[in-house]
Write a structure and sequence with these properties.
The protein contains seven helices and 55 strands. With about 900 residues, the chain is mainly β. It has five domains: about 140 residues, Sandwich (Jelly Rolls); about 130 residues, Spermadhesin, CUB domain (Jelly Rolls); about 170 residues, Spermadhesin, CUB domain (Jelly Rolls), CATH 2.60.120.290; about 130 residues, Sandwich (Jelly Rolls); about 200 residues, Spermadhesin, CUB domain (Jelly Rolls, Sandwich). The strands form eleven sheets. Strands 1, 2, 4, 6, 7 and 9 form a six-stranded mixed beta sheet that branches. The chain has a six-stranded mixed beta sheet with strand order 11-12-14-20-16-17, with no helix packed on it. Strand 16 and strand 17 form a beta hairpin. Helix 6 runs antiparallel to helix 7. The N and C termini lie far apart (about 155 Å). InterPro entries: CUB_dom, LDrepeatLR_classA_rpt, Non-NMDA_GluR_Accessory, Sperma_CUB_dom_sf. It holds the Pfam family CUB. Keywords: Disulfide bond, Membrane, Signal, Transmembrane, Transmembrane helix. This is CUB domain-containing protein.
């Protein structure tokens, strides 16, 4: 009974095992082993032996059937050998992102044959069509494992790889450090020149590895590294993953010369002393196959002696990692010297030294570089005595040179690639001490780059050999003109007929706590016109002049200067055009910046021209280059107690380059009341500032120094402090928009506010009720407000029903200073000419219409005859009869419309002859 149960159980287990086996995929073993008996060869997949397929019943005619394959290929090299594996064909199922069906695993860091690969570091998994990069084992063993569940049995499917066993000598960089993996000491006593390879170069380097190379030379030696190939995984700007770090010294605490990753070409590095430490660190970044690096090194005492080159100067430093590149930095207005290597002895061959010269640059500092050579003897193949060539462009330097880069583009080219360097100046040979080729050379900004290079050495047995130069850092205010005083003083003189000057560093912000003085100097008999192209100073408003610009007239008497302040400008007020005072041929402009802010500053233009012959002219005149001079002296009389000051051509557009001055004088004890009747002058004026760039009105002693714009309310009634007042009008000499101008009334008044009013009680005088101004009685009811000052007072224009009232314009033109007889005659001439031209034009138009009508009638008659004759032959070309043109009899002829327009805008009412000032035509002759 028990036997029966046992037999039944065995049969059940056997049946179940067969059933399970029929549903489970068969796993085939196809391991291969290669050792030093076969130092090179080829491995392929598929590579199933025929007998293995037959014994397992594999039917290659059924490609859809899937099998489990796991093939382990083991490579064991001999002592002091490594395994090199290179794939020349690779086509497996899957892709680089999905290696589930078929893939190859590479284990290149296996320490021994018996090591479990599951405990070894995986060097990479590959599938699809991208073959693994060249692989070199870290030691003498390498294993690769193929896993396949693919049904793909095409002829091209699989892989093919070549293997070989290579010597490991080149990977042993030096003396291994006991107890540390991949750490070596390279001593110059063993070899002066050598090559260092990354641990598995050119194969993909292992992950999570640290290698250290300590290079030690004799005292006085320096070390040169030259990377002929460099491929380290690039993980970011600061190389956070894989990198090579080079220390300028024997320990990790030494200064870092460079930390590098990515792809580099022909990278060259020099130590500053006789030792270097190199760290090669790898992590496990995203999938990539970087190959590492190959580096040539050299220990030598022939490299440039840095201590001798620097000469212990402050501000002169060696650029770490280079053979002899030098950085010269200003310590504020300092002077330094630089020289060629070994100066005054012969410089070395095949040496390139770059001198990067930096002046101060910042919000408060801006310097320029001045380079002057003490001597140059940079010899080429021709060692005959040299003379200065006609120009710098004629200098050819085939074997040694000194190049100076001043332009920004050339400086970048020199610092990026010496092979493609372009210099602004190239010098060589032995240059005489009095040659202008020795300089000075001045930078365009705060920086300059100079380079010394030699491909060969020539010695003419005369010392010194090479070059020596002096570098001066001077404050660069960015101002044209003749510099005065020391280099850090912002003082400039201008004597040319035209020119410009600007705030320091314009158009950049000017520095704080700065004072600059500009001297515009003309000869006697000259005057100076000043106007501004740009003006923006720091400050909230004119009442807080933190930064300001003072404009002075300079008078010289008995050899002594007297400065008279014309105006002070600050904040964002835009100065109007200005002319030096009569008798002054020099202006001085002083710019001062405070410590609380900065702005773009200003740019001013000046012109030194022939001086006017009178302080206040006696009429109008045109002077050279289209400039226009006008104005007059107006003396109030019993018959002329008031009047008007109007701009030239008012109310038509004024012109550019206009300078007008009016002087109004009234009786002793009286004052002048000024009121703006109309203003249309380009610019902008607010309640607390004015920007009168192109045209300006100035009133002597007024609460505001300049007036412009179109708002009359900003010009408050002004009462002169004395019996005289001066008004000026100027426009810029370059271009103006040309608006209508202005109309300013003046009145002779006596201010009796708080005084005895009885002096104004007579029939010839009138006392204003509220302002307490005493005016001439003739000014009552003249259409002008002659009483308004300080308060609203129009009592002189009230109760005028019983008075003979004169209109505003009749009163206006009783005493117009600018409406001279010359203007009236000119206006009448224009009117007559316009009427005459209009009549001629109208006659021509009528004649033309008559001739046109006559010709049209003839053409119509001829056409009718032609239409009747050819009507049957040309039925579709019949022309409609042309009707007689109709003319609008109400249309005004062009001459009439022009005359009406001119009459509306340009004709001035007549001016009484007794109110017109005398004109002198010979004033500018």
């Amino acid at each position: 009974m028990y036997l029966f149960h046992i037999i039944f159980l065995l049969l059940f287990i056997s049946r179940s095992t067969e059933a399970i086996s029929s549903n489970r995929k068969t796993i085939f073993q196809c391991d291969q082993h290669f050792d030093e008996s076969q130092p090179e060869g080829v491995i392929e997949f598929p590579s199933l032996p025929k007998q293995l397929a037959i014994s397992h019943g594999v039917n290659n005619s059924k490609p859809e059937q899937q099998y489990n394959l796991q093939c382990v290929y083991t490579f064991v090299a001999g002592p002091r050998q490594r395994v090199r594996l290179e794939f020349d064909h690779f086509l497996l199922s899957g892709s680089s992102e999905n290696c589930d069906i078929e893939y190859v695993d590479i284990y290149s860091e296996v320490e021994s044959v018996d090591e479990d690969i599951l405990q070894s570091a995986l060097g990479g998994r590959y599938c699809g069509t991208v073959a693994p990069h060249v692989r070199i084992s870290l030691r003498h063993v390498m294993k690769i494992v193929l896993h396949s569940r693919s049904t793909n049995h095409e002829d091209s499917h699989g892989f093919r790889a070549k293997y070989s066993f290579i010597p490991e000598d080149k990977f042993i960089a030096g003396e291994p450090v006991s107890g540390k993996k991949c750490s070596y000491i390279i001593d110059s006593s063993d070899r002066k020149i050598g090559t260092l390879y990354s641990p598995t170069y050119p194969g993909t380097y292992p992950h999570n590895m640290h290698c250290s190379y300590l290079m030690k030379g004799y005292r006085g030696e320096r070390i040169r590294l030259f990377f002929t190939d460099f491929d380290i995984f690039f993980g970011g700007e600061h190389c956070p993953y894989d990198s090579i770090t080079i220390f300028d010294g024997p320990t990790p605490s030494s200064p870092i010369i460079r930390k590098v990753c990515g792809l580099q070409q022909r990278m060259e590095i020099y130590s500053m002393t006789n030792s270097l430490l190199i760290h090669f660190n790898t992590t496990h970044p995203a999938k990539s196959d970087p190959r590492g690096f190959i580096m040539d090194y050299e220990f030598s005492s022939r490299f440039v002696n840095i201590d001798k080159l620097l000469n212990k100067q402050r501000g002169v430093t060696h650029i770490r990692g280079t053979e002899c590149d030098v950085r010269v930095e200003s310590n504020r207005e300092t002077t330094h010297t630089i020289s060629s290597p070994n100066y005054p002895e012969v410089y070395p061959a095949n040496t390139t030294c770059t001198y990067i010269i930096h002046g101060l640059q910042g919000e408060q500092n801006l310097e320029k570089v001045i380079l002057t050579f003490d001597s140059i003897a940079v010899l080429s193949f021709d060692t005959s005595p040299a003379t200065a060539p006609p120009s710098v462009d004629d200098i050819a330097c085939p074997s040694a040179w000194v190049g100076i880069a001043i332009g920004e583009g050339n400086m970048k080219a020199v610092m990026s690639s010496t092979d493609d360097s372009i210099f602004d100046v190239t010098l060589c040979e032995r240059i005489p001490s009095d040659s202008p080729l020795l300089g000075p050379y001045i930078s365009e900004g705060p920086r300059m780059v100079m380079q010394f290079g030699s491909t060969d050495t020539r010695d003419d047995r005369i010392t010194p050999i090479g070059f020596k130069a002096t570098i001066e850092f001077k404050t660069d205010f960015g101002v044209t003109g003749e510099s005065l005083g020391t280099s850090n003083e912002c003082r400039f003189r201008f004597t040319s007929s035209t020119g410009f000057f600007n705030s320091p560093r314009y158009p950049a912000n000017y520095p704080m706590d700065t004072n600059c003085t500009y001297y515009i100097v003309g000869q006697p008999g000259k005057e100076i016109l000043l106007h501004f192209e740009q003006f923006a100073l720091s400050g909230d408003d004119d009442s807080n002049c933190n930064d300001y610009l003072d404009v002075y007239d300079v008078f010289v008497k008995n050899g002594k200067e007297e400065l008279r302040l014309k105006e002070r400008y600050c904040s964002d007020t835009f100065p109007g055009p200005s002319v030096s005072a009569f008798g002054s041929h020099e202006m001085r402009v002083v710019f001062t910046s405070g410590s609380s802010g900065t702005a773009n500053g200003f740019k001013a233009l000046f012109e030194i021209r022939t001086a006017r012959k009178e302080d206040v002219p006696r009429g109008e005149a045109h002077i050279r280059r289209g400039a226009y001079r006008c104005g007059s002296v107006i003396n109030a009389t019993a018959d002329k107690p008031n009047g008007l000051i109007i701009s030239p051509n008012y109310p038509v557009k004024y012109n550019k380059d206009v300078h007008c001055d009016w002087q109004i004088n009234v009786k002793e004890g009286y004052q002048v009341l000024l009121k703006m009747e109309a203003i249309d002058v380009e610019g902008e004026m607010t309640s607390d500032s004015a920007s009168c760039q192109k045209a300006v009105i100035r009133v002597e002693g007024a609460p505001r120094m300049e007036y412009c714009g179109t708002k009359r309310e900003f010009f408050e009634a002004y009462l002169s402090p004395s019996n005289s007042v001066r008004i000026s009008f100027l426009t810029a000499p370059d271009k103006v928009n040309g608006l209508k101008g202005f109309n300013l009334s003046w009145t002779e008044v006596k201010n009796l506010s708080g005084k005895d009013e009885s002096v104004c009680k007579s029939d010839s005088l009138y006392l204003c009720t509220y302002s307490k101004l005493c005016i001439d009685a003739k000014l009552r009811c003249n259409g002008l407000d002659n009483c308004g000052y300080g308060v609203q007072d129009d009592t002189d224009e009230q109760h005028c029903q019983n008075q003979p009232t004169r209109s505003f314009y009749s009163a206006k033109f009783m005493s117009t200073s600018s409406g001279s007889l010359k203007e009236k005659s000119a206006d009448q001439t224009i009117v007559v000419a316009a009427i005459f031209c209009g009549a001629i034009f109208l006659f021509i138009c009528i004649l033309f219409l008559y001739l046109f009508k006559t010709k049209l009638d003839k053409k119509k008659k001829s056409k009718r005859k032609s239409d009747t004759k050819h009507r049957q032959r040309q039925p579709y070309r019949q022309q409609k009869p042309m009707h007689k043109p109709q003319f609008d009899s109400e249309l005004s002829p062009p001459a009439t419309s022009r005359f009406v327009h001119h009459d509306a805008t340009g004709i001035m009412p007549p001016i009484p002859l007794h109110q017109i000032g005398t004109s002198s035509r010979d004033m500018y002759s």
